[in-house]
Structure formats: C-alpha cells, structure tokens
Amino acid sequence: MILTQLRALKSQNKSGFAVLVDPDKIAPADMHYLARLCNDARVDYLLMGGSLLMAHQMELCIQRFKTESEIPVILFPGSPAQVTPYADALLYLSLISGRNADLLIGQHVTSAPAVKASGLEIISTGYMIIDGGVQTTVSYMSDSMPIPGDKPEIALCTAWAAELQGKHIIYMDAGSGARKPVSEEMIRKVSSHIEIPLFVGGGILTPEKVFENCNAGANIIVVGNAIERDPLLIRDMALATREATANKVNS
Description:
- The chain is α/β, with parallel strands linked by helices.
- The chain has helices at about 1-10, 30-40, 60-65, 100-120, 135-140, 150-165, 185-190, 205-215, 225-230, 235-250; strands at about 15-20, 45-50, 75, 90-95, 120-130, 170-175, 200, 220-225.
- The protein has a single domain (about 1-245), classed as FMN-linked oxidoreductases (TIM Barrel, Alpha-Beta Barrel), CATH 3.20.20.
- Helix 7 links the parallel strand 6 and strand 7.
C-alpha cells in the first residue's frame, strides 16, 4: 500500500519525490515522454489533478502514463469529478487551513459514493494552503485565506488538529505559481512535531530547494510548475531528493 510506503519514509527520516501533472496543461500524447523521464529519474509518485480540469482528459493521461511506467499514480483532486479508478490512490483532501465548510466536509459527502466504489486506496489528507506571496488558483477557487508564511506555529497547530482527527498525512502547499515556497522553518516545525508523513509543494523551482526542503523534514516533495517549463528538471530534482535522504541517513 502507498500509505505504508509513506509511513516508512516518515519513520526512517527519508524523503521521496513526486511529479504533479495538471491534465489541462499536458496532452495525453506527451505522457509517454513524461513516463520515460520519470522512469529514468526514479521518481517515486505521479500526482494527477488540477483546480479546474477543463479538458476532461485526465483518465486518458493516466492510461497513457501507465502503458510506459509502473510508478504509482495518486489523484490530487480539485473537485469530486476528478475521481477515476484508473489511478492507484486518492488524496482525500480536507482543506484544514480554511473555514470553507464545503471543502472541509461538504464535497466529501457528495463524492463518498464514487470514492467508495472506485477501488482506490484512500489517503485521508489534511490539506493546508500556505501563503506563497501571491493569490494562487487554489486559494481563489477554495475561497479561503492561506496560513501566513511566517507563522509556523499556526501551521503546526493546524497539523496537530488534523493528526488528532485521524488524518493519514499532512500536505502543505504554497500553490501553483507561488512566488515564495513553504519556508524551511515551517517545514521543520511541523515535521518534527507530527507523527504522520508530510507532503510539501508549491513554488519549488530548483534542485537546491528540493534538497533544502528534504533536509527540513519533508517526506514527499511535490513539483509541478517548474517541470512544466523544463521537464528535464525531473532528473536533477529526483537526484537531489535521494542525496538529501542519503545525507540524513548517514549523519
């Protein structure tokens, strides 16, 4: 199970690397090339989803990817419509950083029948939007205020609340197009005080930043926008993740 793998990363103080694909920004025909890049780089997971999903080609993208790769595909849904059995797992997101009841429980009630019938591995996720210096699509679409980037204590208390409620993982996201990624201070504060795996994404543009975030305690680094601009970054970012893990294990 994917959750078992994630828990092992946490318990062993290791990190993994995930590529985030927005199906609105890639053609299904390009998924073969992406799969080969991910295979060569030894990417751990492919996350699939978007805030809008205008093109309705997510299932085809997943199918094309899976013809070339055995890397697990995890849905990162922006709405209940983004549930498909062609993936391997689903991040069942509760927007715990906001006060929008629809994204805390409302859409979950709507989507529950489809989720139960999907056969997917369901990973209950405490999703936290962190201020990335600019209003992102996710903050606009969710109609919620992000956690201030310089308030790690608020992030920690929010993560604790999710952990106490039984969430499987925490996902801190500065959002697509963020000017500022989640700070190392915030990552370290949250990661060192929770017992569940931590995903970190948004505004991560360089292998150096990947390395720093892994050292700070992120168990899964998620990168999307930077790779859309330069797919070859997949190799260097995945390598940076492995190097950071090796340094932590050997220190």
